[in-house]
Request: fold
Amino acid sequence: MRWEILFLVVFLATFLGKKALAQGSAPDALSDEVPSIRELAKWPPPRFVLGDTEHRLRIEWVTQLRGEVTSRGDAEGASVGVRRMRVRFRGEIARNLVRPFLQLDLGPNRGAELLDLMVDIRLAETWHLRFGQWKVPFTRWRTNSFARQAAVEWAPVLLWFGSERQLGFALHNGSERAPEGLDLEGGVFTGTNARPTHGNGVAIVSGEPVPGHSSLAGRNEAPRIHPELVMRLGWNAPGAAMHEEFDRERSQSFRPAVHLSFAWDLRADPWRDFAMRIAPEVWMKYAGFSLLGIGFWGLRARPPSPHALSGPFDLGGLAAQGLLAQLAYRFEAELGLALRVSWVWVDVGFAEEAKKRAEEQIAAHADNPSVAERYQNAGRLLEEGEILGAFVWDLWPGVCRLGLDLAFLFWRRESGIEEGLRGRMQFQLAL
Reply:
């Protein structure tokens, strides 16, 4: 990582933060004295808003600087760098009748990316029609922002079951900020992820590449359109605050939430896409404790021939199943602890089919070494797990966060079991 970038980020945060606070955001006028962490935690976060009550534009910036060390068998590694660098533009037109939203990632990992580009149109007091590109509504947990996680990063189970951003349109009554009572979001999407990151369980097993079309820095492969119906239906108790993993309210009352997510790909590629995904989800918050549990089931398509696409009812049985469980506790002093378990099991029959197909592909292209490299691990991975402990300190709530986590990693392959350890430390700045 270039230290010039870190210096620039800290400098801008200090300058802009002081400027915003000097304009009246802080409870008291600024002085030359450096505030303590306890005093800083009482300051409201700076906000950058243009416009008036009729039309407004809010600009946000989130940067994550991360250090990571890993030990996996005989291999060890360490890295330090910028994990995310997001800029967001939230608009409100005609007193919130129309709400456009744009989010870009300017981080160095994949270059500049278009993440979200969507418009919400208010149809009734709480109901909105949305169209554009955003995360498909598969689990309430994944709908939340990465900046509010209890751990440093999303759980590995999302690499398998998603959700990821797609083009589409949907009806909802509160997407990013969960409403109390009925919580519904459902629509039709292209079926192709804009980013090759989450929801790729079938491709992980089969060895097929997963293209993306979100990059702004180079050429993208044209998305393959295969309609996918996605819906999340749930109920949230008053005060459940589903957009937060921690229980900030710390109320002495039980606040449960129950959700069921469903995704049905009407024209799934049997070696890249789940034909159907189902995920029941339960939350519970009480007195600072927050409990989360999600089950995942992914069904595969049954191909009529090795290269043909399946119809919507050609289900070939279970491809993989997963589990996410998390227990978190929030202290009064802006400190939090969490224990998270993420586990995935691959169906043995599906793994055998993927391995057999890979061997056929390698034999048919014996003169092409890239094919052998692509399919050499197909069908070999049977189980993947992570047990993680996390610590979070909100130095300035809503602005500066320090996160640490330590994880035990597990893989079971056809050849045997592999284990590893990983530690991460992350500083997050949000303006």
Summary: The helical segments are 3-25, 37-40, 140-143, 157-161, 201-206, 348-364, 369-375. The chain has a mean pLDDT of 87. The longest strand covers residues 75-92.
